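User: What would this chain look like folded?
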Amino acid sequence: MRELGIDISGHRSKPLAEFARREFEFVITVCNRAREECPVFSGVPERLHWPFEDPATFVQDGEERLRAFRSLRDRIHARVMVFLGEGAYGSREAD
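Assistant: Here's the prediction, encoded as C-alpha cells.
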C-alpha cells in the first residue's frame, strides 16, 4: 500500500466483537473461507461475495509472491471503485 502512497501502518486487525452492536448496509467477503465463516450481523445488511484467491496461500516466495499480492491489491481496488460507482444500484457480482 505504501507503493501507492497509502499509509496503513496505524491499522490493525479487529475482532468481530468490536462491531457487535453496529449495523451495516453491506457485508462484503473477498474469499470463500470468509464467506463460509462470516457471522451474522445485526440489521439486514446486503451480503456480497467477491471471490478473490488468497495470496497468503501461494507457495511462491520472493518477487513472485509480491507480484501476486500487488495483483490482488489492484483487483480489489478496481472492484471497490466499480462498487462505489454503482452506489446502491447495479450488479455487484465479481469480475
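The two ends are 22 Å apart (CA to CA). If you want, I can go into more detail on any region.
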